[in-house]
Amino acid sequence: MPAPRPCESHLDIIRLGHGLPHFAQALKSRRKVRLVALGSSSTAGADSILPYPPRLEMLLRQRFFGRMIDVINRGVGGQEAPEEFSRIESDVVAEAPALVIWQVGTNAVYKSYNPAEVRATLEAGLDVLAALPLDVVVMDSQYTSAIVGTADALKLANIIMPMIAEVSASKKVNLFSRFALMKRWADDNIPLPELDDGGQLHTSEWATNCVTQALFDAIDEALKPEAIT
């Protein structure tokens, strides 16, 4: 049996543009620290593949041993920024997290949402979160056949992903570009069928694991200037 393909995090692609001061302070001053993962089915989990939130929780607990770090999974399958925006009060604010990872863009492409509607609700949601004592990481879409495998889907993806990046930059929040990372893997000759779970939309076991590792690496690097020990 061949050895598993190694993960390549490509920090040059997924490096976070801003620090994580609230998360860093929580790690310094609290034993219990909460994160919220807000998103759709690629956050919630699909097709018996463990999604990224519990994987990230395990990596963070190993890195910051002795702290009780909980990554609360608030993914709901089929949703996009407009529906997720309506859950911010109940699913994010009520949990008082130090860090929110908001996954958007997948269903915007898969279900052909109006980019202007996605943009408006993403901006509004980030404005709500900006008033709270927490850090934000926006995660964009996976790069799988359902998102890039047809001309129409790829055309919409190439509108939605730059829009997410533009909004994130304008609101001065971190962007974790899962799309660019997975595209790099595809450009490095990893076949698209190895990146999805067989249904062409959700990520495979390997890709889910490696996306999580890359997200952890990006978060860990962003924390290093804060001298977390």
Give the CATH architecture.
3-Layer(aba) Sandwich
Biggest beta sheet attributes: 5 strands, parallel
CATH class: Alpha Beta
Q: Which structural class best describes the helix and strand composition? A: alpha/beta
Number of domains: 1
Q: β content, as a range? A: 5-15%
Distance between the termini: 39 Å
| Oligomer class | single chain
Give me the Rg, rounded.
17 Å
How many H/I helices?
Answer: 13
What is the H-and-E element order? Answer: HHEHHEHHEHHEHHEHHH
Q: Helicity range of the residues?
A: 40-55%
CATH topology value: Rossmann fold
Number of separate strands: 5
Q: Which residues form runs of ≥5 with pLDDT under 50?
A: none
Mean residue pLDDT: 94
Shape: globular
Strand arrangement across the biggest beta sheet: 2-1-3-4-5
Topology diagram in text:
Elements: H1 11-14, H2 21-29, E1 32-39, H3 41-44, H4 52-63, E2 68-75, H5 81-85, H6 88-92, E3 99-103, H7 106-110, H8 115-130, E4 135-139, H9 145-148, H10 151-170, E5 174-176, H11 178-187, H12 192-195, H13 205-223
Parallel strand pairs: 1-2, 1-3, 3-4, 4-5
Helix pairs in contact: 4-13, 8-10
